[in-house]
Design a protein that fits this description.
- The chain has 144 residues and is mainly β.
- The protein has a domain of 94 residues: Deoxyuridine triphosphatase (dUTPase) (Deoxyuridine 5'-Triphosphate Nucleotidohydrolase, Chain A, Distorted Sandwich).
Length: 144
């Protein structure tokens, strides 16, 4: 699938690292380093603008290495970029560690997955079909 993109950064376009990668790394596009203090969140620009086809979204997800090594995550994970959005892609990073974390220009800060989605049409009902789980919610399956 070809997706129109405007690259307002001086970094290469996101690319798949391997033939079976689902996501492409997004890089920070910064004029100066940004420090995230513990429990602080900031919007980090990427310089990228895209035009997705109707029926698709781009999901912005955390990078597992950043989460494990430094406690850095994507706050609204996954963040959704809708097909009709034409602004710059930004990543809301959060520092869940006890130490300051510095984001530098060009750092790989998140990954983006392009996904097809369906549109729902509600159909009012007076009852729902029965299932084994029924109304069992959080923790319903228990520990074995």
């Amino acid at each position: 699938m070809k997706i129109p993109v405007i690259n307002g950064s001086h970094h290469d376009l996101p690319a798949y690292a391997t033939p079976d990668s689902a996501g492409m790394d997004l890089r920070a596009n910064l004029d100066a380093p940004v420090t995230l203090r513990p429990l602080e969140r900031k919007l980090i620009p990427t310089g990228l603008r895209i035009a997705l086809p109707q029926g698709f979204e781009a999901q912005v997800r955390p990078r597992s290495g950043m989460a494990l090594k430094w406690g850095i995550g994507v706050l609204n994970s996954p963040g959704t970029i809708d097909a009709d959005y034409r602004g710059e892609i930004g990543v809301i990073l959060v520092n869940l560690s006890a130490e300051d974390f510095v984001v530098n220009d060009g750092d790989r800060i998140a990954q983006m997955v392009i996904a097809r989605h369906e549109r729902a049409e509600w159909e009012l009902a007076h009852a729902l079909d029965e299932t084994e789980r029924g109304e069992g919610g959080f923790g319903h399956s228990g520990k074995e």
